[in-house]
Amino acid sequence: NKRVKIKTILEQTPIGQEITLMGWVRTKRSNKNVSFIALNDGSVITNYQVVADPNLIPEEILKKCTTGACLKIIGTVVKSQGAGQNSELNAKTIEVLGEADPEKYPLQPKKHSLEFLREIAHLRMRTNTFSAVFRVRHALAFAVHKYFNDKGFFYIHTPIITASDAEGAGETFKVTTLDISNPPRTPEGAVDFKQDFFEREANLTVSGQLEGELAAMALSEIYTFGPTFRAENSNTTRHLAEFWMIEPEMAFYDAEDNADLAEDFLKYLISYALEHCREDLSFLQSRLEEEEKSKPADQRSEMGLMDKLRFVVENEFVRITYTEAIEILRNSNPNKKKKFQYLIESWGADLQSEHERYLVEKHFKKPVILTDYPKEIKSFYMRQNEDGKTVAAMDILFPGIGEIIGGSQREERLDLLLKRMEELQIPIEEMWWFLDTRRFGSTPHAGFGLGFERMVQFVTGMGNIRDVIAFPRTPGNAEF
Ligand code: 4AD
Ligand code: MG
C-alpha cells in the first residue's frame, strides 16, 4: 500500500479503496464505541478524519494517538456520515511512528498567539496558520520563476559572499576566517586582510543587483532570486536581517518599461496565489477577520483579504513623482498632525513610513509607484535626470506594507556615473568590473528588487514579517 496524501484523497475520493495515510494528530475525540482522529499531513489545510473502532485498534495504541503524534494508518476510504467532509478513513491498523507526550508537547488544539509561536518556530509550521503561510510562500516562489521563464528571462545565481556593498549603506555582515580576538596586523597596525581567506575584506551580499547588471549586459533580460543580508538594527514588522529578494535587470528598458514590468509582475503573483491557494487564503482571511474583531471599529479594514488582493489586481497603480507626492502631503496635513508638517520646508527629505501610508491608504487607496526621488537619498547607480536634482528611481508602495519594491533606471553614461561616485567617495578602482559595462557596449537598462517576504506578507495578510519566513533572522535571533 502506497502512501496517499490528504490532498489526493480529497481530490479523488477513492471510496472503497484501502490506502495508507501518514500524518500528525491534530485532535482526538473518543467515546466508548469509537475514536475520531483528525489527521493532517501538510499537503492541504484540511484535516482528514480517521475513525478508529476500539474493537480493532488496541487501547494502548489509541492512548498514544495524542495531539502532535505521528501516525501511519492503513484503512478503507468510506463515505462520511457527518457533514463537512465527503469521506473518512476507517482504520484497520494504526502504527504510532512518533509519540508526542501531551505533558510536554507545546502545541495544544487551541489558539496560540503568534508571539508564543515565534518562540517555538521549530514547531509552528504544524499549525494551520503557518502551514497555510508556507504553502502560499511556496506558490509565490514558484510563480516568480514561472513568470520570468514564460517571458524569456534567465535566472542568474549571484554570489552570497562578495566584496561590494551595492546599496552603499554600510550595513553589511562581515565574512572572515581571521581570529577576531587577535587578528594578524600590518606593520602599520591595521588588520591585515591579505592574510584572510579571500585575501581581502568580504561581506554577505545586500543585493545581487550589480552582478545582475553584468548579466543583463550579456543576456538582455535576467532575474535573481536569492537571500540578501542587511545588518540594519531596525526592529520593525517589515525588516529582517536575512530576507529573499527578486531582482530582475533588463537591458534596453527605460524607467517606464521598468514600472510597467513591476506592476504586471506584482499583479501576476497575486493572481497566481488567488487561483492556486484558494483554501489557504480563505483560511487566512478568516484568521484576519477574527483579529480585526479585537480592534476598535474605526480601525477595522472594510475589505476581506481576498477582496483586497483582487482590488490590487484589477486596478491600475497610481504613478506620481516624489515632488508631486510632497505637494500632496503638504496640502493634506490630516488632523493638523505635526508629523506631516516638516515636509513643508524640506523637499529632499526621505519619506517616512507614515507618509507612505498616508499616500497609499488614505489619499489614493491604491498601490502607488513613486518616481524621480532626490539624488541625495538614493544610490549611486541611479540614472540622473535632466533637472540635475533627481534620479530615475522608482519605489512601489503597497497598502499595509509600505515599500515593497525599490528600483531604477541605471546610469549608463560612464562620465556621469564616475562623477557621482567621486561625489559619494565610492572607491572607483575597486569597482572597475562594474564600470567596464559602461566602458564596453553600454546601453540604457533598468531593474528593481522585490522584497519577497513583504510580498508574502501582503498576500497572506500576516502583520509581522517574522511570521512569513520559517526561521527569521532579526537582532538577537539566530538560534535555529
Ligand atoms: O530598496 P532596496 O534596498 O533596493 C535594492 O536593494 C536594489 N538593489 C534593488 C534593485 O534595484 N535591484 O531593497 C529592495 C526591496 C525593498 O523594496 C523591500 O521590499 C525589500 O527589498 N527590503 C527588505 N525586506 C525585508 N527586510 C529588510 N531589511 C529589507 N530591506 C529591503
Ligand atoms: Mg528601497
Automatic annotation (TrEMBL):
<dbReference type="InterPro" id="IPR004365">
    <property type="entry name" value="NA-bd_OB_tRNA"/>
</dbReference>
<feature type="domain" description="Aminoacyl-transfer RNA synthetases class-II family profile">
    <location>
        <begin position="134"/>
        <end position="472"/>
    </location>
</feature>
<keyword id="KW-0547">Nucleotide-binding</keyword>
<dbReference type="GO" id="GO:0016874">
    <property type="term" value="F:ligase activity"/>
</dbReference>
<dbReference type="Pfam" id="PF00152">
    <property type="entry name" value="tRNA-synt_2"/>
</dbReference>
<comment type="subunit">
    <text>Homodimer.</text>
</comment>
<dbReference type="InterPro" id="IPR006195">
    <property type="entry name" value="aa-tRNA-synth_II"/>
</dbReference>
<keyword id="KW-0648">Protein biosynthesis</keyword>
<keyword id="KW-0067">ATP-binding</keyword>
<protein>
    <recommendedName>
        <fullName>Asparagine--tRNA ligase</fullName>
        <ecNumber>6.1.1.22</ecNumber>
    </recommendedName>
</protein>
<keyword id="KW-0436">Ligase</keyword>
<dbReference type="InterPro" id="IPR045864">
    <property type="entry name" value="aa-tRNA-synth_II/BPL/LPL"/>
</dbReference>
<keyword id="KW-0030">Aminoacyl-tRNA synthetase</keyword>
<dbReference type="InterPro" id="IPR004364">
    <property type="entry name" value="Aa-tRNA-synt_II"/>
</dbReference>
<keyword id="KW-0963">Cytoplasm</keyword>
<dbReference type="InterPro" id="IPR012340">
    <property type="entry name" value="NA-bd_OB-fold"/>
</dbReference>
<comment type="similarity">
    <text>Belongs to the class-II aminoacyl-tRNA synthetase family.</text>
</comment>
<dbReference type="InterPro" id="IPR004522">
    <property type="entry name" value="Asn-tRNA-ligase"/>
</dbReference>
<dbReference type="Pfam" id="PF01336">
    <property type="entry name" value="tRNA_anti-codon"/>
</dbReference>
<dbReference type="InterPro" id="IPR002312">
    <property type="entry name" value="Asp/Asn-tRNA-synth_IIb"/>
</dbReference>
